[in-house]
UniProtKB/TrEMBL annotation:
It comes from the Eukaryota. Belongs to the major facilitator superfamily. Sugar transporter (TC 2.A.1.1) family. Keywords: Cell membrane, Glycoprotein, Membrane, Transmembrane, Transmembrane helix, Transport. InterPro entries: GLUT (IPR045263), MFS_dom (IPR020846), MFS_sugar_transport-like (IPR005828), MFS_trans_sf (IPR036259), Sugar/inositol_transpt (IPR003663), Sugar_transporter_CS (IPR005829). It is a multi-pass membrane protein. Pfam families: Sugar_tr. GO terms for biological process: fructose import across plasma membrane. Residues 16-459 form the Major facilitator superfamily (MFS) profile domain. The lineage of its organism: Eukaryota, Metazoa, Ecdysozoa, Arthropoda, Hexapoda. GO terms for molecular function: fructose transmembrane transporter activity. NCBIfam families: SP (TIGR00879). This is Major facilitator superfamily (MFS) profile domain-containing protein. Coiled coil: none annotated.
């Protein structure tokens, strides 16, 4: 097969960019945008409630409202995750991603009108809508990227989703600084800027083809599938790849449409489902959100001023971006399983030493410095594999007929775990202090053992080869 077929080309890069810069950017921006302007928004809510009720609300009311604003985003993500399979199959990957932008447009209208109308409720609605968008994007985009990629680039291209998330979280944090848009006058602009990636996707993605696999295997449109593949490879030499897809299509004819029940009952599907759900749980329950949440406190304990703490948080965001970029390069060389195991091993070491350092940080400036070092080490090891691999591993483990349903369950699981950490971390932190990380150490060890025993290496394997592996294992 020619080099142009195997490698990147201008049109494939355009399709990857149109798909991920729109959707993953929305996901990451929505995730990070509420961090810096929290105090400003809480003051605004306090003012709105005072005007509405004639008395200043107590701290507990504001805390509860803020918790609702944060958690409703995860609930929206769960809803988006659950409808991923339906949208990806009924509308297709391409139209499904374009459809997802409707929720962003509606959310932007809500945030733009919330301040003039003094409506906290509109902020809550907008966060729910951006959650649905993020949940849909998290399911459909990795699916599209996996289906348009040559086998030898599937891992690297799949990692683009997480890379763009890390970049957009960093950008949202920079834009959320008080001196930029995170102030009393500009926060509606900050929350409405999510329209930019939306406009980018709506103006570029219509020029990209639908997933060739979806066209051939789900719709039976062979000529359109070949045309899409020729466009994506910038070459007419696509016969080998078409044959591979036709073989998968023939195999699919023998298999009825896969339901949730089939995923659970059929041994050849149950094993990859358990792996998919476990790596999603591993990503969220590894403590990543807790470490990021705790990082500002850690930096303040280390004697940094509020501005310096914000700067340190930005540096962590930058480290996350750089390491995700490095993992994209490593992933096709080292493999998925190797990077997952290396990542979790490093996270265990970093979390153990972080827990020890935090316990001495109040009395020792040296321990405070070590806290910062181990937070950075934790982020580096997380970004090496656990940050990006779960998003596209699901698309690699399942054949075309099972992929949408499996993606729905996996994305729902990820958002549910995210929600669980969000609502339970602060109460546990209040009760256990720095010892809260011991819980994450235990979970990390369990996840590492599971990855070692159960997760197969999918590097350079076709989807059919991976499916055959699970079929073989289910009959052993």
């Amino acid at each position: 097969m020619s080099k142009s077929v195997q490698g990147l080309n201008g049109k494939l890069v355009f399709a990857i960019s149109a798909a991920s810069l729109g959707s993953a950017f929305q996901h990451g921006y929505s995730t990070g945008v509420m961090n810096n302007p929290q105090t400003v928004l809480e003051d605004w809510m306090r003012h709105v409630l005072k005007e509405r009720n004639g008395e200043t609300p107590d701290k507990a009311t504001i805390t509860l409202l803020w918790s609702v604003i944060i958690s409703i985003y995860c609930i929206g993500g769960m809803v988006g995750g659950l409808i991923t399979g339906l949208v990806a199959e009924k509308l297709g990957r391409k139209i499904g991603l374009l459809f997802s932008n409707i929720f962003i447009v509606l959310a932007a209208i809500c945030t733009a009108t919330a301040k003039p109308s003094s409506s906290i409720e509109l902020i809550i609605v907008s966060r729910f809508l951006t959650g649905i968008n993020a949940g849909l994007n998290a399911g459909v985009t990795p699916m599209y990227l996996a289906e348009i990629s040559p086998t030898n680039l599937r891992g690297a291209v799949g990692s683009v989703y997480q890379l763009v998330i890390t970049i957009s979280i960093l950008i949202s944090q920079i834009l959320g600084i008080r001196g930029v848009f995170g102030n009393e006058d500009s926060w509606p602009i900050l929350l409405t800027l999510i329209l930019i990636p939306c406009a980018f996707q709506l103006s570029t993605f219509p020029f990209c083809p639908e997933s060739p696999k979806h066209l051939l295997i789900s719709k039976g449109q062979e000529i359109e599938a070949q045309r899409a593949l020729v466009w994506l490879r910038c070459s007419h030499d696509v016969q080998d790849e078409m044959e591979q897809m036709k073989n998968e299509a023939e195999a699919m004819k023998l298999v009825p449409k896969v339901t949730v029940t089939d995923l659970i009952v059929n041994g050849a599907l149950r094993q990859p489902l358990i792996i998919s759900l476990m790596v999603m749980l591993a990503q969220q329950l590894s403590g990543i959100n807790a470490v990021i949440n705790f990082s500002t406190d850690i930096f303040k304990t280390a004697g940094l001023s509020e501005n310096a703490s914000t700067g340190a948080t930005m540096i962590i965001g930058l480290v996350n971006v750089i390491m995700t970029l490095i993992s994209m390069i490593l992933i096709e060389r080292a493999g998925r399983k190797t990077l997952l195991m290396a990542g979790f091993s490093g996270m265990i070491v970093a979390t153990v030493f972080l827990t020890i350092s935090i316990s001495f940080a109040k009395d020792s400036s040296v321990a405070s410095v070590f806290c910062i070092i181990f937070v950075v080490l934790y982020i580096i090891t997380f970004a090496t594999g656990p940050g990006s691999i779960p998003w596209f591993l699901v698309s690699e483990l399942f054949s075309q007929s099972a992929r949408p349903t499996a993606a729905s369950l996996a994305v729902f699981t990820n958002w549910f775990a995210n929600f669980l950490v969000g609502i339970s971390f602060l109460p546990i932190k209040e009760a256990a202090g720095s010892n809260v990380f011991i819980l994450f150490i235990i979970l990390q060890i369990l996840f590492l053992f599971f990855i070692y025993k159960k997760v197969p290496e999918t590097k350079n394997k076709s989807i059919e080869e991976i499916s055959a592996l699970f079929r073989q294992k289910s009959y052993e």
